[in-house]
Design brief:
Blueprint lengths: L23 H20 L2 H12 L8 E3 L3 E4 L2 H12 L4 H15 L9 E8 L4 E7 L34 H12 L4 H14 L1 E2 L2 H9 L1 H4 L3 H6 L13 E2 L2 H13 L2 H4 L2 H13 L5 H6 L3 E3 L2 E5 L2 E5 L5 H13 L4 H4 L4 H21 L10 H4 L2 H8 L26 E7 L5 E7 L26 H9 L22 E5 L2 E6 L7 H13 L5 H6 L3 E3 L5 E4 L5 H9 L3 E4 L7 E6 L2 E6 L7 E4 L3
Parallel strand pairs: 15-16
Antiparallel strand pairs: 1-18, 2-10, 2-19, 3-4, 3-11, 4-7, 5-6, 8-9, 9-12, 10-11, 12-13, 13-17, 14-15, 17-18
């Protein structure tokens, strides 16, 4: 039996029937039936019988996580998960697996996986107990001034698609920094699976071919991009086609042999510089040479009996998660119940408060002073929590930022890893929009992100016109735009409890918070949480967006409290690993086709 695919949870003595109200004769019947079912399994061998028995005994949770006693990887792409688990089986550190998976998704998930985008990573070192944050967010090129994005009609243009939208990519530098600090296996060994996937090709699934079809308009922004994701005759790739990416294989081979230097100072950098000049982009060789990934101290806060660790700025997502949790701590959510009108109402209201603070204060800490300590102070957040009316929704226009002493695309991706030694990685990275800026320099094979669009360009323009102070998220050369991405870890009694994170642009902080509430307050399993419906409070429209699955009764109660409801497409895509005693439990989010959890060990 393949030990990597065991989808069970170990039950302790008596735990399978905890809280059961079955009568004794019914219990005896269940035991007899279980024995009848177990007998043929015993004949198949002890490993198979034991794993199937675990499935039978896990009565508490409706959705079952993947479990294992060694390491675990979870991502939204099966091929990438298989690359990661193979690295763990070779003795790799959690960072080794995360690096290999991230490079693999640059091949297998081109709408979000990347070497031309950016992201954030949390790394927990089990030996020291220390958790580090790696910031590899894109930066604005030297030539990226506000004036370059104001059209003749005064409107903002070019920030979300095309050559002007490309910032300085951070992914190669960030992955290399993490590997240099924590990796065990050789760098070249970790890049090889991705290079091989690009060179040998991947057989497209129906979902992957469909994604490429609706991405053709954006990919058509540059002829190299459209050619890279089309058949030889220029027609769209179809399900079952083998998609070869020889130019990307070349770039990966350069990174494999020369490290991130190939991207920022070597042959890839030279091609980028020439291509950007040829097509009118802003990115130059000196911008690439100046780029640095940064190791930062993560944010930490207590929530109930747990410690939550998240990304610091320029990830505003981490600050938002911390603020929402600390406000929600003043309410008895467990008594309200999961997905109840009371719980959803309070969650929506603190989302509004946290987002107003983000809009007012968040920015690149290298360029802008952020009153972070004040924003996270207990008395400040208690005062903010008092603004929540328990029975009436506040109109979004009436919600203001506090006075302490941005729009993003949902197309991002997240992966989580825990190795057999307890080291852990939570990594979120992105191209921005689907397929990023849609542009590709000839001969490189990868798309550039459109992260320039994450700067508050319109607010900055309006501020200049009115001679006001520039927005905290203003564009400037070398500056990092604010992001919602926030890989997150939760600890209990000083030990790692679970690792999570999500793509989803502005929905990321709320998705992470809902995952934490499900586990900490409501006692749900990680698979149950991944399958449960989510909400997102949109501040632009004022709508409380809801996935399918919230009951009509609950919706009616929320409307009565003043919420404006709107049906939503799927919200987020959590990829979570939880430690449950000696077992690891992995939950791939079903919202993204191909999401897979794989484990090493029984």
């Amino acid at each position: 039996m393949d030990s990597r695919t065991v989808a069970t949870r170990r039950a302790g003595p008596g735990s399978a029937r905890k809280g059961s109200r079955l009568q004794p004769n019914v219990k005896r019947s269940c035991r007899i039936l279980a024995s009848m079912l177990l007998l043929p399994l015993l004949l198949l061998g002890p490993a198979t019988a034991f794993s199937q028995t675990q499935q039978l005994l896990n009565y508490r949770e409706i959705q079952k996580p993947v479990t294992g006693s060694g390491g675990m990887v979870v991502s939204q792409n099966e091929a990438a998960s298989r690359v990661g688990v193979e690295v763990l089986e070779q003795g790799g550190h959690a960072v080794d697996a995360a690096v290999a998976m991230a490079f693999a998704m640059a091949v297998t998930l081109p709408r979000a996986g990347n070497i031309g985008g950016d992201g954030f990573m949390l790394v927990h070192d089990a030996a020291t107990g220390r958790t580090s944050a790696v910031d590899f967010r894109s930066t604005a090129p030297e030539a990226a001034t506000l004036e370059r994005f104001i059209g003749s009609d005064g409107r903002i243009t070019g920030q979300s698609q095309g050559w002007l939208a490309a910032g300085v990519p951070g992914t190669p530098a960030g992955l290399e920094l993490a590997h240099r600090r924590f990796g065990r296996l050789p760098w070249a060994q970790l890049v090889e699976p991705a290079r091989r996937l690009a060179a040998d090709g991947i057989e497209l699934t129906r979902d992957e071919a469909f994604a490429l079809s609706w991405g053709r308009e954006r990919l058509g922004t540059s002829s190299a991009a459209l050619k890279a994701f089309s058949r030889a005759d220029g027609t769209p790739l179809q399900a079952g086609d083998r998609h070869l990416q020889p130019d990307l294989a070349w770039s990966l081979a350069q990174i494999q042999e020369h490290g991130a230097d190939a991207f920022y100072r070597g042959a890839i950098a030279e091609r980028i510089d020439a291509g950007m000049r040829r097509h009118g982009g802003l990115l130059r060789l000196q911008d690439l040479q100046a780029y640095r990934a940064l190791e930062r101290e993560p944010l930490r806060t207590r929530y109930r009996d747990a410690e939550v660790v998240a990304m610091p700025l320029a990830s505003a997502g981490g600050v938002g998660v911390m603020q929402m949790l600390r406000m929600l701590e003043h309410f008895d959510l467990a008594a309200m119940g999961p997905r109840s009108a009371d719980a959803l109402h309070h969650l929506a209201e603190v989302m509004k408060l946290a987002w107003r603070d983000r809009e007012r204060y968040a920015g690149d800490p290298g360029f802008h002073h952020v009153p972070l300590a004040a924003l996270l102070r207990a008395d400040y957040l208690q005062a903010r929590a008092r603004l929540v009316d328990p029975v009436r929704a506040a109109p979004v226009d009436a919600v203001r930022p506090g006075t302490p002493s941005l729009d993003e695309s949902p197309e991002t991706t997240h992966l989580s890893v825990v190795d057999r030694d307890g080291n852990a990685v939570s990594l979120t990275y992105t191209l921005g929009s689907d397929f990023g800026s849609g542009v590709m320099v000839e001969g490189t094979g990868f798309l550039f992100g459109n992260l320039i669009g994450n700067f508050s360009l319109a607010a900055q323009r309006d501020g200049q016109r009115q001679q006001r102070t520039l927005t905290s998220n203003a564009i400037a050369p070398g500056r990092r735009p604010v992001s919602s991405m926030t890989p997150t870890m939760v600890f209990r009694d000083g030990a790692l409890w679970f690792v999570t994170g999500s793509p989803g642009g502005n929905t990321i902080p709320g998705t992470v918070v809902q995952t934490i509430l499900d586990v900490v307050d409501f006692g749900l399993g990680v698979a149950e949480s991944a399958n449960a419906p989510r909400i997102h409070q949109d501040l632009r429209s004022g709508e409380l967006r809801m996935e399918r699955g919230i009951s009509p009764d609950t919706r009616a109660l929320l409307v009565a409290r003043g919420h404006t409801l709107a049906d939503s497409e799927t919200i987020g895509s959590s990829q979570t690993i939880l430690r449950n005693g000696a077992l690891l439990e992995g939950a791939p989010d079903p919202r993204r086709p191909g999401a897979t959890a794989l484990a090493t060990g029984p």
